[in-house]
Amino acid sequence: MLSITCKQCRTGWQVPKSKKGGQVNCPSCGVVNEVAGASDAGWFYGLAFGGYALVGLPLAITAVIGILNGEAGTAVCFGSAFAVVTIVLLFVLLGS
User: Which residues pair with 16 in a beta bridge?
Assistant: First the structure.
């Protein structure tokens, strides 16, 4: 739990750690207060898209190079792998 104090009426109360980086209403006066700290969502999305950039983009680039060089096997193989990585990213993001 996190302890916060209302910026208007100075009432103190506890909020769950899941509210970190968000906003809550004071139970006494109803004023919206910021909860200090960064939310964990930034880390989640940063890691998800960073991993996608490290794994997915090289696969896509290799598939495009295979298309340009007329190598159908390379293009299909790397293009399929890129599609799988993209689908996994969508499941991760929609499941969160």
Answer: none
Residue type for 15, please?
A: V
Q: In whole angstroms, what is the distance from residue 36 CA to residue 21 CA?
A: 6
Neighbours of 47 (CB within 10 A): 11
- Higher-confidence residue of 38 and 78: namely 78
Angle between helices 41-68 and 72-95 (to 10 degrees): 170
E-state strands within the chain: 2-5, 12-15, 23-25, 32-34
This prediction has a pTM of 0.57
Q: What is the mean pLDDT of residues 20-32?
A: 89
Domain boundaries, the chain: 2-34, 41-95
Could you tell me the CA-to-CA distances from 9 to 1, 2, 20, 32 in Å, in that order?
21, 18, 21, 11
